[in-house]
Specification:
The chain is built from 16 helices and 4 strands. By secondary structure, the protein is mainly α.
Length: 340
């Protein structure tokens, strides 16, 4: 089966290098804009920084899969470099994403990304955790989910509870991310002092807000990739091995105004899950191969604001036996809760 997309696997070193160079140039331009532009320009550059963070992350994601360059050592070096703006730890991302997510996509107990609770599991949660789950799966909470449940819990000095082991490379990569974050904030504060601007303003627009916006972008992207009426989740490995299909596990996404093109093609996600060794710039061709062989449908999902809002309301819990998504149960009023 892998032979279908094998012709799209080989990365082009020149093209990958140009992608990295362009995105770092955009990063430098946005940081300069935050420092030098008037207030409206600072706001625009803050939004730009969040998008550039996402673009650099996609390149790191490819490097972690070994699809940015042919050399494993070059991928490891460049991957760590382009992951720094998002404070992503290369080795921990590899364990959580390449091994757990790609190795066991949509299999409860092994996959770690946006795994839905069953109605019975949700009912058994403490009230505070039920409230958090409602927030996470609201259209406003996607970023908070990624920030807390994935970045903080699994990518920043995680405990054995979250990754199962403590390795030296995990600690080294976590220290590297923290050191970069501290140095970057110190740079922003220093530049603010030199240019006689409020230090908190430059740190806010150049560091804090872009990082939070990046978390929202990332949380939203992975939510729409594996949540929806057509997406199937499994809680039995035997069933997962027997029934899973690429159209059931993920899907291709279009954003309004085709904004997904800003993200290096990663929204063509079916080809990526079918063969994660394909570089981002060859996912379109690989998708065509899957369509030609009948391994994926031609349908892509258009995910606008209304779609995201409706999706978050309708696909909150999952019935693993019936393979059906469910909304959260209605909140009980004070009188009803007291009577219960």
């Amino acid at each position: 089966m892998a032979a279908i997309t094998a012709p799209e696997r080989t990365p082009n070193a020149i093209r990958s290098t140009v992608q990295v160079a362009i995105d770092f140039a955009l990063l430098a331009a946005c940081v300069a804009g935050v420092v030098l532009a008037p207030l409206w320009g600072k706001i625009a550059c803050t939004l730009g920084l969040a998008v550039v963070f996402a673009r650099l992350f996609v390149l790191g994601h490819d490097a972690c899969h070994g699809s940015l360059f042919k050399s494993e050592k070059v991928n490891a070096f460049v991957g760590r470099l382009v992951f720094l703006p998002t404070l992503t730890t290369f080795s921990l991302w590899h364990v959580g994403h390449n091994v757990a997510h790609h190795g066991f996509a949509n299999l409860k107990g092994r996959d770690q990304v946006w795994v839905p609770y069953s109605p019975e599991e949700f009912a058994a949660l403490p009230k505070w955790r039920q409230r958090m789950e409602r927030i996470y799966r609201s259209v406003w909470g996607f970023g908070l989910y990624y920030l807390v449940e994935l970045w903080w819990n699994k990518l920043m000095f995680p405990s054995r509870k979250h990754v199962g082991a403590r390795r030296k490379e995990f600690i080294v990569d976590s220290v590297l991310a923290v050191a970069f974050g501290a140095i970057y904030l110190a740079f922003l504060v220093t530049v603010a002092v030199v240019t006689e601007q409020p230090w908190w303003l430059i740190a806010l627009f150049g560091g804090v807000l872009p990082f939070l916006l990046w978390n929202y972008i990332m949380g939203t992207v992975i939510f729409v990739h594996h949540t929806g009426p057509e997406m199937v989740w499994f809680d039995k490995r035997s069933e997962w091995l027997r029934l899973r299909k690429v159209d059931d596990l993920t899907r291709d996404i279009h954003f309004p105004f085709r904004l997904e093109k800003l993200l290096h093609g990663i929204m063509l996600h079916r080809a990526h899950h079918y063969d994660p060794f394909i570089p981002n710039y060859r996912l379109k061709a690989a998708t065509g191969r899957l369509l030609a062989h009948g391994l994926a449908s031609a349908k892509a999902t258009i995910a606008g604001w209304k779609y995201l809002r409706d999706l978050s309301r309708k696909c909150a819990l999952y019935d693993y036996d019936a393979k059906a998504w469910l909304a959260f149960p209605a909140r009980r009023t004070g009188a009803a809760a007291a009577a219960a």
